[in-house]
Design goal:
Layout: E1 6-12, E2 23-25, E3 30-38, E4 44-52, E5 59-67, E6 70-75, E7 81-91, H1 93-106, H2 112-124, H3 133-142, H4 149-157, H5 159-167, E8 172-176, E9 180-185, E10 192-196, H6 205-217, E11 222-225, H7 273-285, E12 289-294, E13 297-298, H8 303-307, E14 323-325, E15 328-330, E16 334-335, H9 344-359, E17 365-369, H10 376-389, E18 394-398, H11 403-411, E19 416-417, H12 427-439, E20 449-450, H13 467-480, E21 483-487, H14 524-536, E22 546-551, E23 556-562, E24 569-575, E25 582-587, E26 601-605, E27 611-614, E28 620-623, E29 630-635
Helix pairs in contact: 1-2, 2-3, 3-4, 6-7, 13-14
Length: 636
C-alpha cells in the first residue's frame, strides 16, 4: 500500500457527485483549489498538472497557499474536449530550511550547520546549465567564511533564488491527488448573443436569409429557430391558442410531425433541406451560427405514432395522453414515454439520430425544449455520446423548473441553461441571484443564458411597458450574463400580454404569422450598440467576475466586471424604473476597480461615447428613462 505524509483533499473544481466533469471554455482561467497539509512543521509546495486527454504532454502551474491549509492555482485550457488535472504536493526542503534559518538567527542561535545544510540543499536542485550560475554562486557564497553572515546568506535566500529553485524543485514526499476531470467547450458556450425568430414569419428560408443581414447588423452571434418540421393538423391550435383552427392557421411549430415526416424533415412551407443548407452557409458568412429547437414530442400525425405506439403514454381507454403543463394544455402534442415497457433502447437511439442528422447539416447548437420532463439517464447517455464525437456541439436547456433539477441537468452535460432572470426585477433579487450564479455551488458547471422575453413569456416591466423598460432589461441581461438572448419583436417593443393573468403574448407568434414593419424597429440601433460593447470589452464576456456596488436608491443597481489582469474595467449602472427619473449616490469598491485613493476618475459611457469624471467612491448618478436608462462606463 502506497503511503504518504501529505494529505490532499477537497480538490476542485468538481460537480457534487464527482462523476461528471465541471466545465470551462477555451481561453478561460480555471481556478483549482485543494486542502493540503502534513504532520509536523515542514513547509509544503504544490502545483496543478493538466492536459487534454488527447494530448500526451502534461502542463504544470504552481499553487499558492491562500488560507490555513487552503491552496489555489490556475490554468488555462486551449483546446475543446475532455481534460484531466491533478494536484500534487511535496515537502519543500528549501522553504523549510529558509524558515528555520531565519528563526534561528532571530533567536540568536549558531547557524553554522544550518548554512552548510542550505548549501547541500541547493546543490540537489537540477537547474539547467543556462540558469545554474546564480545557484553555483550562492552555494560558494554560503561556504565563504570570510564574509559577514548577511553577505553569506543573501544570495541563497533572496526572492530570485526562491523563484529559481521553485521552477526546478526537489519533490520530497511527492503526493498526487486522484485524477480529476474537466470538460472544455468552445468559447460560444460561455459568450454569445442569441436572437430567436420564426422562419415562417419571414416567408420561409429565403426570406429568413434576407433577414439575417439585419440580425447580424444588430451584433448577434446565434440565430435560434423554433422547430422547422412539418406541423400536424389533428387538434391543431388556432390563433391565441384557440382549440379550433381555421384552414389558414399555421399551427404551433412544437406540434411536430405529419404525413410529410417528423423531426428530420423540413416543413415544405419553409423550403427544402437544400434551402436550409444555404441558410446555414449564409449565417456562417455573416459570422453567425444557426441554433435549432430540439423538442422530443410529436403531433398526433407524427409517423412515430403509427409506427411505434408503445413510445407514448396511453390512458386506460387506449387513447394517447396529450401534453399538459397546468394550467396550460397542449391537445396538439403527444409527449414521448422515455421509459416504455419495451423498445427503450431503440427509442433513445431514434432520438439521438435526430441530433446526428442536423449536425450533418451544419447545426452545432441546440436549444432543448423542456429537458426536465425527460429522464436524467437519457440525457447522460445521449449528451456523452454526442460530445464524444462532436465536442463542439452546444446544448441549451430550456428548463424553467426547480433549482436542483436545473443544476442536475447542467451537471450531467447541458452546456447552458435558461434562468429565472426573466422574473428577477428588484435590486435585491438581481444581486442575490447573480451572486448565486457567479459564486454559488453550481457556478463551476451551470452557465446561465439570460432572456428578457421568449415566445412564451412576456413578464414584469415589459408588459405594456415603454421603450425604456425594454432598454433596461436588455442592458441588464447583456452585461450581467456573458450569454443572453431576445425573442424577435423585442426591438419593436412588442408589449401586449394575453391578459392580466396570462404572461404570454396577445396574438402569439406560436399560433399565427404576425405582420411586422421592421423599418420601425426603434431599438435596433440600441441593441446593436449594446452587442458591440459586449464584443469590445472582455470583462463583459465572463460571469465569475461580477461585483455589486452600493446604491443609495433601491431603484438603481450598480455592478462592475473586471478582467483578471485589470486591463478592462466596466461599471454598469441601470435604473430599474422605466417611468420616473431616479437619482442615487454610489458606494464603489475602488480597490476592486483597480483605482487608488478616493480621488475623481475618468470614465467613458460606451452607450453614447461621452466622457465623465466621477467623484471618487461616492459619485452622484441621475438616470432619466426618457433619455438614458443606464450607463455602461469604461473606466479609463
Amino acid at each position: 500500500m502506497a503511503v504518504s505524509r501529505i494529505v490532499i483533499e477537497n480538490v476542485g473544481p468538481r460537480t457534487p457527485g464527482g462523476i461528471h466533469p465541471p466545465k470551462s471554455v477555451t481561453g478561460e482561467v480555471v481556478r483549482t483549489t485543494a486542502e493540503i497539509y502534513r504532520d509536523g512543521h515542514d513547509e509544503l509546495s504544490a502545483a496543478v498538472r493538466w492536459r487534454a486527454n488527447a494530448a500526451s504532454k502534461w502542463n504544470r502551474a504552481p499553487m499558492v497557499e491562500v488560507g490555513i491549509d487552503a491552496w489555489e492555482g490556475t490554468f488555462t485550457p486551449e483546446v475543446i474536449g475532455a481534460h484531466t488535472f491533478i494536484v500534487e504536493a511535496w515537502t519543500d526542503r528549501y522553504l523549510t530550511w529558509r524558515k528555520n534559518l531565519i528563526a534561528n538567527i532571530d533567536g540568536g542561535q549558531d547557524v553554522t550547520v544550518d548554512i552548510e545544510e542550505g548549501a547541500a540543499l541547493l546543490e540537489q536542485h537540477r537547474v539547467p546549465a543556462s540558469e545554474r550560475a546564480p545557484l553555483v554562486e550562492a552555494v560558494a557564497t554560503l561556504r565563504n567564511e570570510s564574509l559577514s553572515l548577511r553577505d553569506r546568506l543573501l544570495p541563497a535566500v533572496d526572492s530570485e533564488m526562491a523563484e529559481l529553485v521553485a521552477r526546478y524543485p526537489v519533490r520530497d514526499d511527492l503526493t498526487r491527488s486522484a485524477s480529476m476531470h474537466l470538460w472544455v467547450d468552445p468559447q460560444r458556450a460561455l459568450f454569445g448573443a442569441w436572437y430567436e425568430m420564426f422562419p415562417r414569419s419571414e416567408g420561409g428560408f429565403e426570406g429568413t436569409m434576407k433577414r439575417l443581414r439585419h440580425i447580424a447588423a444588430m451584433g448577434f452571434d446565434v440565430v435560434y429557430f423554433p422547430p422547422i418540421h412539418p406541423i400536424g393538423t389533428t387538434h391543431r391550435k388556432g390563433r391565441n391558442n384557440a382549440l379550433t383552427a381555421k384552414p389558414e392557421d399555421p399551427g404551433s411549430p412544437w406540434a411536430i410531425g405529419s404525413a410529410e415526416g417528423g423531426h428530420t424533415t423540413v416543413n415544405a412551407d419553409l423550403g427544402t433541406i437544400e434551402d436550409f443548407d444555404r441558410l446555414v452557409a449564409e449565417a456562417e458568412s455573416l459570422d453567425m451560427e444557426i441554433a435549432l429547437d430540439y423538442a422530443l414530442q410529436c403531433s398526433p400525425d407524427h409517423p412515430w405514432v403509427k409506427e411505434h405506439p408503445e413510445w407514448f403514454h396511453h390512458r386506460p381507454d387506449g387513447t394517447i395522453k396529450y401534453a399538459e403543463n397546468p394550467p396550460k394544455k397542449y391537445q396538439d402534442i403527444y409527449p414521448l414515454n422515455f421509459w416504455p415497457d419495451t423498445g427503450r433502447e431503440q427509442m433513445w437511439e431514434a432520438c439521438k439520430e435526430i441530433i446526428d442528422f442536423w449536425i450533418s447539416h451544419g447545426v452545432k447548437i441546440f436549444r432543448v425544449d423542456n429537458p426536465h420532463t425527460k429522464p436524467f439517464a437519457f440525457w447522460e447517455w445521449m449528451l456523452a455520446d454526442i460530445k464524444s464525437a462532436h465536442p463542439e456541439v452546444i446544448f441549451l436547456a430550456e428548463a424553467f423548473t426547480r433549482p436542483t433539477i436545473m443544476a442536475k441537468l447542467a451537471e450531467i452535460g447541458f452546456t447552458q441553461s435558461y434562468t429565472y432572470f426573466t422574473w428577477r426585477r428588484h435590486k435585491w433579487e438581481l444581486t442575490e441571484y447573480l451572486n448565486e450564479l457567479a459564486y454559488g455551488p453550481a457556478s463551476g458547471y451551470l452557465r446561465p443564458n439570460f432572456w428578457p422575453n421568449t415566445p412564451d413569456i412576456l413578464s414584469g416591466s415589459l408588459r405594456n411597458g415603454p421603450p425604456a423598460a425594454f432598454m433596461q432589461r436588455l442592458v441588464l441581461a447583456a452585461t450581467m450574463s456573458p450569454s443572453y438572448g431576445i425573442y424577435s419583436g423585442y426591438e419593436l417593443c412588442e408589449n401586449q400580454p394575453a391578459s392580466e393573468e396570462n404572461e404570454e403574448y396577445l396574438h402569439s407568434e406560436k399560433y399565427e404569422i404576425p405582420e411586422r414593419d421592421w423599418s420601425s424597429a426603434s431599438l435596433a440601433v440600441f441593441v446593436g450598440r449594446v452587442n458591440n460593447i459586449r464584443r469590445k470589452h472582455p470583462a463583459l464576456q465572463q460571469l465569475r467576475n461580477i461585483r455589486f456596488h452600493h446604491s443609495s436608491n433601491d431603484s438603481v443597481i450598480a455592478y462592475s466586471k473586471v478582467t483578471e489582469d485589470r486591463s478592462d474595467v466596466v461599471l454598469t449602472v441601470v435604473s430599474l424604473d422605466p417611468h420616473w427619473v431616479q437619482e442615487t449616490t454610489l458606494g464603489l469598491d475602488l480597490e476592486y476597480l483597480g483605482l487608488r485613493g478616493d480621488r475623481p476618475f475618468g470614465v467613458v459611457d460606451e452607450l453614447d461615447g461621452k466622457s465623465y469624471v466621477l467623484d471618487g467612491a461616492n459619485p452622484y448618478i441621475r438616470l432619466d428613462p426618457s433619455e438614458r436608462p443606464a450607463h455602461i462606463l469604461h473606466i479609463v
